[in-house]
């Protein structure tokens, strides 16, 4: 900490995506606090600033994937498609930043490198890569759950002489793949969205698949004026239902058991989901879907049957058919024209389980039995999810303890919003909260509102801060673990549990108890005078 303090504020906010922008508004304009927000990108948007790859789109419906805090905002903004494309979400967040004059307290192109808690003053000192040092009473991390890309663990990756693209850091200018031989690595949600778009443009596309995935079509479409009017006339009711729902999206209650249901009923539910792009009809129609392998298998087999129907070449169809994990235990992707893309003459699938990659070469890719030549390579290989962006910052709490050391064996938090030993720090959608198991915007608003109430409470009490107790944190961690145990999630290789990153501890990180139940718990904690916390 060599630089002199350049500014002293009530709150430093790290990030300017949905959570950072809403935090500025809430804490500054509603609570009257002084705030300073930092954002590494040169624009606002967070996830939706960085992930501008072809086909990038949210899989929550646009009218639901938006702020609810201002009814005027929701009435004036027009979403044009059922599932919003990246460019429209980025435009929306720019509109929000301008409409509420959020930029005046935001510094772009500025990465927070360190944050240190001073026990004497109960304040944080925050340092940036622009040599700014800001002193703040509260630290709010709004860094996103999927914002630190995982390292590309393929030998020779730097030797390739053509252009390489990471979906997470896609150039702002359009990348023209026409006439090119392109490789794509990765068939998660990102690859599944990008592959059909790249397949349409490239002279030839080779998809290197490690794990076959269950994709359900999105059935995206341009919204009609009638559909838009319908959303807007029911918006308030929708918001209320979303806030108390399981996943931040209002859904009918699931029926008890897929196994108990007659096959015709089950298949009709799955077919409806497949035909309409209403993915919850497949994943959440039965309560035992993620609890019983046999129940899950009914949906998994339904999707496998669709793949066999769509994909013309039987060998390719077989390679695309997932058999090694239950449906929904990896983040279920949703995208249009994915399986159909493999019927194109210019698209080829390579199964890395059968023929692993040996290395990337200056001119392409060598698998154990073939050399491929490429003009460009695209990596859609995923993220160091939930903790990567937090661990990338030197966050030091009491006794100089580094957060990433404290979390060496996996993240532990109280309610996913607070960490014992790190007073006055709030982690929006942190590990241990519903976060990625929900409509992120709903969970972000709930967290930021809770933080605002908590800071107001501290003001009323004249307290200088708040800290989770170890006992409350242990109990919460235990609860998060218990509700995951006995589900199929514990068996799967997934970024939910860190298994996609070599060496990362295997801990299932999100809270799967549901947005509504979680909100009740957080409200009870607050109503009880912030039970499980100590005031400092
Ligand atoms: P994911 O879901 O982690 O997908 C990454 C994909 O990349 C997945 O198919 C991986 O296979 C594959 N991968 C990763 N490393 C390699 C290597 N070394 N070689 C070949 N293939 C590899 O990330 P996404 O970006 O698609 O999605 C992240 C979330 O963003 C998404 O779920 C939404 O919430 C938004 P694997 O399955 O590990 O075998």
What do you see in this structure?
By secondary structure, this protein is α/β, with parallel strands linked by helices. The protein has two domains: 7-149 and 385-535, FAD/NAD(P)-binding domain, CATH 3.50.50.60; 164-220 and 241-379, no CATH class. Helices cover 32% and strands 15% of the residues. The strands form four sheets. Strands 1, 2, 3, 4, 5, 6, 15 and 16 form an eight-stranded mixed β-sheet that branches. The chain starts with 6 loop residues before the first strand and ends with a strand. Ligand NA7 binds at residues 146, 153-154, 185-191, 208, 210-211, 331, 352, 380-383, 436, 495, 500.
In short:
With 536 residues, the chain is of the alpha/beta class. It has two domains: 294 residues, FAD/NAD(P)-binding domain; 196 residues, no CATH class. Helix content is 32%, strand content 15%.
């Amino acid at each position: 900490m060599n630089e002199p303090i350049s500014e002293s504020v009530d709150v430093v906010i790290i990030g300017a995506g949905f959570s950072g922008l809403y935090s500025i508004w809430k804490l500054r304009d509603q609570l009257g606090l002084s705030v300073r927000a930092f954002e590494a990108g040169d624009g606002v948007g967070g996830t939706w600033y960085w992930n501008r790859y072809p086909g990038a789109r949210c899989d929550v419906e646009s009218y639901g994937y938006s702020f609810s805090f201002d009814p005027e905002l929701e009435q004036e903004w027009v979403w044009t498609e059922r599932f919003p494309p990246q460019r429209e979400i980025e435009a929306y967040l720019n509109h929000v930043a301008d409409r509420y004059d959020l930029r005046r307290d935001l510094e772009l192109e500025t990465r927070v490198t360190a944050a240190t808690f001073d026990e004497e003053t109960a304040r944080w000192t925050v340092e940036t890569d622009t040599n700014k040092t800001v002193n703040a009473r509260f630290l709010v991390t709004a860094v996103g759950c999927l914002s630190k890309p995982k390292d590309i663990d393929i030998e020779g990756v730097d030797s390739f002489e053509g252009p390489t693209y990471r979906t997470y850091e896609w150039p702002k200018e359009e990348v023209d793949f026409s006439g090119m031989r392109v490789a794509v690595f990765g068939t998660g949600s990102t690859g599944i969205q990008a592959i059909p778009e790249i397949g349409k443009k490239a002279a030839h596309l080779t998809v290197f698949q490690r794990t076959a995935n269950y994709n359900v079509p999105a059935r995206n479409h341009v919204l009609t004026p009638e559909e838009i009017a319908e959303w807007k006339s029911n918006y308030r009711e929708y918001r209320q239902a979303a806030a108390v729902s399981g996943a931040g999206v209002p859904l009918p209650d699931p029926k008890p058991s897929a196994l108990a249901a007659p096959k015709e009923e089950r298949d009709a539910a799955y077919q409806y989901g497949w035909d309409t792009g209403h993915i919850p009809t497949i994943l959440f129609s039965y309560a035992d879907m993620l609890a019983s392998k046999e129940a899950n298998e009914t949906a998994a087999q339904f999707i496998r049957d669709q793949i066999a129907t769509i994909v013309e070449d039987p060998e390719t169809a077989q390679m695309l058919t997932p058999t090694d994990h239950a449906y929904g235990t990896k983040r279920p992707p949703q995208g249009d024209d994915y399986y159909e893309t493999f019927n194109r003459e210019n698209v080829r699938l390579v199964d890395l389980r059968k023929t692993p990659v040996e290395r990337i070469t200056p001119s392409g890719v060598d698998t154990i039995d073939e050399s491929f030549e490429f003009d460009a390579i695209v990596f859609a290989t995923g993220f160091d999810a939930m903790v990567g962006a937090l661990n990338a910052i030197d966050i030091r709490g009491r006794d100089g303890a580094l957060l990433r050391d404290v979390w060496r064996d996996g993240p532990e938090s109280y309610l996913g919003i607070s960490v014992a030993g790190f007073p006055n720090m709030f982690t929006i959608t942190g590990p241990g909260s519903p976060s990625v198991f929900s409509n992120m915007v709903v969970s972000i608003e709930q967290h930021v509102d809770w933080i605002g109430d908590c800071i107001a409470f501290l003001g009323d009490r004249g307290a200088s801060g708040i800290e989770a107790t170890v006992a409350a944190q242990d109990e919460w961690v235990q609860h998060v673990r218990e509700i995951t145990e006995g589900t199929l999630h514990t068996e799967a290789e997934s970024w939910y549990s860190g298994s996609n990153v070599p060496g990362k501890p295997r801990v299932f990180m999100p809270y799967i108890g549901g947005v509504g139940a979680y909100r009740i718990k957080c409200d009870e904690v607050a109503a009880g005078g912030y039970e499980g916390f100590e005031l400092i």
